[in-house]
Amino acid sequence: MGLGPPYAAGMGELIPLFPLGTPLFPGVVLPLQIFEPRYRRLVRDLTALPGSSDRRRFGVVSIRQGWEVEQVAPAEALYDVGCTARLHTVRPQADGGFRIVTVGGDRFRLLDVVVGDEPPYLQGEVEWLADEEAADEAAGDSAGTAEPGAGTDGADPSTEDVAASVARGSMTVLVRGVRDLFLEYVAEVAGLGAGREDVEVATRLEAVADEPAALSWLVASGALLTTEDRQELLAESATRRRLITESRLLRRELTLLRKIGAVPVPLQQFATPMTVN
After folding, report:
1. Which of 30, 88, 141, 157 could lock 170 by a disulfide, CB 3.0 to 4.6 Å apart?
2. C-alpha R_g of the chain
3. For 210-215, what is the mean pLDDT?
4. How much is the pTM?
């Protein structure tokens, strides 16, 4: 038997789960080496679907405790917000395993975990998380920008245009600030490791310079943050608030780097290394 029905008996959609030690973010490339029998089966089930199917994906969820998730109550061992990994490339290996490349897709909230013998891998009942870009951009920093005495009813269209312009402008300033902080942070880390990661990250930053959401996900995936910090960023639905949080986190990490003079995790994290299951 392959993948089951797309919807569970409860409220949410049923998708395959792949627990990892760190979260995946939308738009981020995730290579994986698949060798466990249950995940080999998952890849076979996914590749059996039509190439155009939107079900050629699984949910990546971070582990709270332990590595044998099934042995420690999966619903409690996993964080409740994850991201789908869309299957992009599959390379079968001589030993029966696979090397795959996936790309982060949609965020979801995990409602329940289904453990069974068929299929042998975990499945999750999920609800999809919507982004708040439109509402957040409209709100922006417009509070207090209306003319004195002006109410919301019958507001002057020109006043609304000014408020929208201020909101867009403040996003530009925020994006520039986070980008510059991240470049400074990466340079500090690369300097400690005598590496060239600052050049690579600068190139990636240039590619997303005009895309606030993409920048926020790049920073979330590239900075050497704790799983808790990364989960906080993944769970945030508004780009503006995510960037504000990243600004705070980057300032904190820069201060620690300069005071302690040590890298908290291997510098190779910046390169998104091959991850084994």
Report:
1. 141
2. 21
3. 91
4. 0.78
